[in-house]
Each structure stands twice: as C-alpha cells, then as structure tokens.
Specification:
This protein is mainly alpha-helical and 106 residues long. The protein is built from 4 helices and no strands. The chain has a domain of 30 residues.
Length: 106
C-alpha cells in the first residue's frame, strides 16, 4: 500500500469516527428527557460490545464446536452470577478440553 493511499484511508477513518462522536453533541443541546431515548442510549455500548465480541469468540478457536461450548459455558456461569474471572477461566478451560477431545476423535 502506498503512503498516499494510507493517509487517505486514515483521513476517512478519522473523519467518520469523529463525526459519529461529534454529531450528537452538536445536534443535541439540552438534557435528554425522553425515557425511551435514554434507555436506548444506555444499551448502545452493550450492544456494540456484544456485536464485536461474539464473532471473535466463535472464530478464535480451531473448531466452531469448541467455541460454541466455551460460549455456552460462559453464558451459564454468567447467569449464575459468577465473577468475570471465574467465567473467563471456565470458558477457557472448556474450550481447551473440548479441543483436546475433538482432536483425539478426529
């Protein structure tokens, strides 16, 4: 990639990132009172984090099955109100063990 093309891409990316963050500040002057809009804005970070994390969870392993098992274990532990460290360790251990079993069976 040429240097000129890189800086063009960089400028477009920086501009779009800046506009996404700057437009709400410029468009909305006062405090948001509508409870539906406030609720919507409250859950945006969680939705974006889930949209970015879920595909990475499913394709970070050698087998989709082991990734699905790890995700399922993580969901189960999270629903049982375990700590983040416990959830992560259980998911990692389940992926590790399931990959060993899958490799032994193949």
């Amino acid at each position: 990639m040429s240097t000129k093309l890189f800086f063009i891409y960089l400028a477009i990316m920086a501009g779009s990132t800046y506009l996404i963050r700057a437009i709400p500040f410029a468009a909305i002057k006062g405090k948001i009172e509508n409870r539906y809009v406030k609720s919507f804005l409250t859950y945006i970070p969680y939705a974006v984090l889930a949209a970015m994390t879920l595909p990475a969870c499913l394709y970070a392993t050698d087998y989709l099955l082991s990734a699905a098992i790890g995700l399922l274990i993580a969901i189960i532990f999270a629903l049982k109100n375990k700590s983040l460290t416990t959830v992560a360790l259980a998911a990692c251990a389940s992926v590790f063990l399931s990959e060993i079993v899958i490799k032994m069976l193949s």
